[in-house]
Amino acid sequence: MKISYYPGCTLKSKAANLEAAAVAALATLGIDVEEIDRWNCCGAVFSLTADDLIHQVGPVRNLVRAKEQGATQLVTLCSMCYNTLARANRIMRDDAVKRDTINRFMDEEIDYAGEVEVVHLLTFLEREVGWQKIREKVKVPLEGLRVAPYYGCTLQRPADVGIEPFGSFHLMTGLLEALGATVTPFAAADTCCGSYQVLNGEAGARSTAAVILDNAAASGAEALATSCPLCEYNLGKQQGRLLEAGQITTAVPTFYFTQLLAVALGVAPESCLFDLNSAASLDLLKTKNCLVAA
Amino acid sequence: MCDADNTTTKKTIRVATGDRAILPEGAKTIPIYIMGKKYDVPETLTIMKAMEFAGFKFLRGAGCRGGICGACPTVYRMAGDYKLHYGLACQTVVEANMYLAQIPFFPANRAEYNIEEIGGAAEAIHALYPELFRCVACNLCTKACPMDVDVLGYISALKQGNIKKAAQLSFDCIQCGLCASRCMGEIPQYHIAQLARRVYGRYIQPRAEHLAKRVEEIESGKYDAMLQDLSAMSKEELEKCYVEREREPDMTAPGAWQPKETRYL
Amino acid sequence: MAYTPEMKELIKRVEATRPERLARARRGENYPALTMAEREEVLSKYHPDYQSDAKRTVQVGPNKGDTFQEGVARLLESRSIVRPDKVNLSTVDFDTDVLVLGGGGAGTSAAIMASQGGCRVIIATKLRHGDSNTIMAEGGIQGATQECDSPYYHYLDTIGGGHFTNQRDLVAALAHDAPLSIAWLESLGMIFNKLPDGRMDSRHFGGSSRKRMQSAGDMTGAEIMRVIRDEVRNRSNLITTLEFHPAVELLLDEEGKCAGAILMNMETREFSIVRAKAVVIATGGFGRLHIKGFATTNHYGATMDGVVMAYRAGVGNKCLHSTQYHPTGVAYPEQNVGLLITEKVRGLGAHVLNIDGEQFCFPLEPRDVESAELIREAMDVGKGIITPTGRVGLWLDSPMIEELHGPGTVKKELPAKFIQFERHGIDISKEPMLVYPTLHYQNGGINVNGDSETIIPGLYGAGEAIGGVHGENRLMGNSLQDIITFGRRAGRNAASYIQGGVTLKGLTLDHVVKFEKELAEAGIEDPAIAPILLPDYATEEVVERRWTEALTDRAALR
């Protein structure tokens, strides 16, 4: 099976581990990932204009590329990219006036009316592969690993593009259980990680992050799974500083869900680029014997 | 003086010389609007030569006159149509009822750097040009490019950290500045592309090892005596050496062939 | 733009004669080549380099007694733009170590190397930095970098190609430095066409014994220029670039050393005095003189300025009588006028035809003979085709290639040309091309030695402005190498000359006074005022309507 795939800029640099693990994991599921040609920024960081329309041009152009290249669905991994693309798609599908304006502005491109469905990989895995099949393919079950499924903001908000209803976490839970992990639900699963606050109010962002990590630890989690590079930055990469500063007491190493998927399916850890995570992440998997034998 | 019709002819044939156009008998003219003002010029002329025909003398706005230097970016619109068109004045033929203006210069921020120190990582480019991230993918840059460069494509590639792709996509850039003139993010695309290409050429594209070796040989003085000997030869001796030299076969790959005579290598 | 209906009507005459011409070609018959005597005749009557009537002997200066084209001779025997006795040389506007005249490849290389030597540099250039013939060079740059090659063979190929008329120390310098130049460009981040392991993907060219042509796509010169210009911009602490600021006269000091130049701001028409311990002339060639009215491949500013200024200062030139013409430059469409059409088209069997679709010459005569025959047919016999812009041309019947070698051959063998014409609506596999000889390269230039030095202390030369590297015939890829080799040498040697200690005495224009006195004594009437800086393309009609004679004060209305 072949899927059209939209990566996003961060996944080509700082969050390469999010992507590498996904691609490797999907390969073991027999899914061929085809990156769409000539993609641009999803639009998440377009902040130049107050009105909403120019904000949509970038994301819509990616959807046009997918349509041009014959895709009916476009799979993506990053929460932020998913959110931006899905929201733009909804406008193009449902709002005739805005659709017309955007299509006119982009007169060098083919017209677009929401023909391509934007799908997050979690949705895709449940819908097109199924937890049962994944369970069967697991080579190294994540037995005894207690993982908190962390959604952050953008997987569920706004409701009409959420991958599942607000307050529900069954997609990530379903996946983690299929991989053999123990899921530890926690109250802060949809609390904002601090987002770009880290740029202008680092202290605020860090206290938010501390609340989330404390809450996860208190719920018994040893690890935290996410799908967003920004969440991974605030909760994972900054975690050492939180520990040093005494803002949290227990480490909760963080992972992209794709990395946990990949190691469980027997992908070699080198293919999951754990060097981009905090060192504690790989150490935890080693301790828990969750890695395929070399 | 530089351009006289002083060819030796029995009959006087009046023809265009140099780059100066004339209107031959019976030829058609068409109206064009240079900065809003109407001029009648011969059809099939380029915008540049049409302006000269009309009496303009360029100081700015003309360079190589062959489509590669980027001195003559021009924006135009056809009467009654909202679409803006872009082209090089030396490469675009006049059309009737075209409204045109040249943009011979457009200000664009350029960051200084040291090629020896910058290294091959995209982060260095991001640090020099943070405005790169002001791109909203509106694509007006690409639409304005007279060389059909995928400007949005290389800007996107750089945001993604793909210097090689940016270097390749921007290779045909002539740095005319039309992209920057249209950018709502105020990005100096062509300067960033230049930086990306140099970083690619210096740090990412593999270096030529045979070249480094040859440089060492030259600097050790290996060829000095040979060149002196050649310079001291009579014309006849030189001719003999010239005629006797072997020719590398056409179909061999570079580096694969060795001549029989190796004394002078 | 596609051929006009009128031109398409004329093409029918070409098509009418084609079957019979093809039949002859298939039988191996061709239009008879000229005998040696006939060649002589057509060359002397019609070739710009040979026609004696359009040539004359100069009567003043270092090359007194030598023969040049009228347009060149007139500029060598010219007066200065300024009146030397009225110029106040005591106010110096810019003081610098090295003044580089010209912002093309040679000048820019010189500036970088001089700054490398710790010198403060001013680049004074007539148009924008980079507007030059360098940027237009497509093919490539020579350099003996491969194992099967060496500077020895580069030397031999170059001097053989130049019919052994080249100045030998220059050839030796070129062959020696060529790989160094290429390594330098590589280290500056130039993108060369390379094989995956980094090896230069070098190619053969006319007159090469080894694959020595290195390239960057089909825009090698542009890539060189972009990279070295960018490097200059990274050295703003040492290098100042003055655009639209050509030099109009060299300055010497009272001891005869070169000591700077007078610059003119072309936009404001203000003049300034630059005092410099060394000056590099890198002002390029003379294509825009349109010798005898020919179209040119050259950039807008190629008007021989440096040769003119050096001549007045006492630096002569060599090989300046030799110009590289190409018999088949484009005459239509207007965007491509002057651009070259490779000899390969005729090599593949395309006939050259007049307005009636008739052959009038053997298509593969030597370049100079072929050019002369085209000129004769158009200008003397009067059977050229006149374009809508009044340009004259002759047909080059490229569709014959498809008939002779099979469909698709044109596109396969001439991909770049095919696209170049297709872009303007002309399919050269179906329609003939319109061609006329075009002026390509100034083979000669000012006298320098292998260290880029002229006979005047502190005055250097590099690039197309210098003469002798190529002799009377230049090989492809040696012009870009000439630019880098001698540009770098000029910059480096200027820096070490200055490091050796240079004390400038009072500035003077006495050399100009002396030269103009010679002009007067020789009785040269109405000398030109030069450098001319830019060509003038105003039509006769426009000039007439400017009422030049009826004006009260011409200068005020300039």
From TrEMBL, chain A:
<dbReference type="InterPro" id="IPR004017">
    <property type="entry name" value="Cys_rich_dom"/>
</dbReference>
<protein>
    <submittedName>
        <fullName>Heterodisulfide reductase subunit B</fullName>
        <ecNumber>1.8.98.1</ecNumber>
    </submittedName>
</protein>
<feature type="domain" description="Cysteine-rich">
    <location>
        <begin position="147"/>
        <end position="235"/>
    </location>
</feature>
<dbReference type="Pfam" id="PF02754">
    <property type="entry name" value="CCG"/>
</dbReference>
<feature type="domain" description="Cysteine-rich">
    <location>
        <begin position="4"/>
        <end position="85"/>
    </location>
</feature>
<dbReference type="GO" id="GO:0051912">
    <property type="term" value="F:CoB--CoM heterodisulfide reductase activity"/>
</dbReference>
<keyword id="KW-0560">Oxidoreductase</keyword>
<dbReference type="InterPro" id="IPR051278">
    <property type="entry name" value="HdrB/HdrD_reductase"/>
</dbReference>
TrEMBL record, chain B:
<keyword id="KW-0411">Iron-sulfur</keyword>
<feature type="region of interest" description="Disordered">
    <location>
        <begin position="246"/>
        <end position="265"/>
    </location>
</feature>
<dbReference type="Pfam" id="PF00111">
    <property type="entry name" value="Fer2"/>
</dbReference>
<dbReference type="InterPro" id="IPR017896">
    <property type="entry name" value="4Fe4S_Fe-S-bd"/>
</dbReference>
<dbReference type="GO" id="GO:0051537">
    <property type="term" value="F:2 iron, 2 sulfur cluster binding"/>
</dbReference>
<feature type="domain" description="2Fe-2S ferredoxin-type">
    <location>
        <begin position="28"/>
        <end position="106"/>
    </location>
</feature>
<dbReference type="InterPro" id="IPR017900">
    <property type="entry name" value="4Fe4S_Fe_S_CS"/>
</dbReference>
<dbReference type="GO" id="GO:0046872">
    <property type="term" value="F:metal ion binding"/>
</dbReference>
<dbReference type="InterPro" id="IPR036010">
    <property type="entry name" value="2Fe-2S_ferredoxin-like_sf"/>
</dbReference>
<dbReference type="Pfam" id="PF13187">
    <property type="entry name" value="Fer4_9"/>
</dbReference>
<keyword id="KW-0408">Iron</keyword>
<protein>
    <submittedName>
        <fullName>Succinate dehydrogenase/fumarate reductase-like Fe-S protein</fullName>
    </submittedName>
</protein>
<dbReference type="InterPro" id="IPR006058">
    <property type="entry name" value="2Fe2S_fd_BS"/>
</dbReference>
<dbReference type="InterPro" id="IPR001041">
    <property type="entry name" value="2Fe-2S_ferredoxin-type"/>
</dbReference>
<feature type="domain" description="4Fe-4S ferredoxin-type">
    <location>
        <begin position="124"/>
        <end position="155"/>
    </location>
</feature>
Automatic annotation (TrEMBL), chain C:
<dbReference type="InterPro" id="IPR030664">
    <property type="entry name" value="SdhA/FrdA/AprA"/>
</dbReference>
<dbReference type="InterPro" id="IPR036188">
    <property type="entry name" value="FAD/NAD-bd_sf"/>
</dbReference>
<dbReference type="InterPro" id="IPR027477">
    <property type="entry name" value="Succ_DH/fumarate_Rdtase_cat_sf"/>
</dbReference>
<keyword id="KW-0560">Oxidoreductase</keyword>
<dbReference type="GO" id="GO:0008177">
    <property type="term" value="F:succinate dehydrogenase (quinone) activity"/>
</dbReference>
<dbReference type="Pfam" id="PF00890">
    <property type="entry name" value="FAD_binding_2"/>
</dbReference>
<keyword id="KW-0285">Flavoprotein</keyword>
<feature type="active site" description="Proton acceptor">
    <location>
        <position position="367"/>
    </location>
</feature>
<protein>
    <submittedName>
        <fullName>Succinate dehydrogenase / fumarate reductase flavoprotein subunit/L-aspartate oxidase</fullName>
        <ecNumber>1.3.5.1</ecNumber>
        <ecNumber>1.3.5.4</ecNumber>
        <ecNumber>1.4.3.16</ecNumber>
    </submittedName>
</protein>
<dbReference type="InterPro" id="IPR003953">
    <property type="entry name" value="FAD-dep_OxRdtase_2_FAD-bd"/>
</dbReference>
<dbReference type="GO" id="GO:0008734">
    <property type="term" value="F:L-aspartate oxidase activity"/>
</dbReference>
<feature type="domain" description="FAD-dependent oxidoreductase 2 FAD-binding">
    <location>
        <begin position="97"/>
        <end position="480"/>
    </location>
</feature>
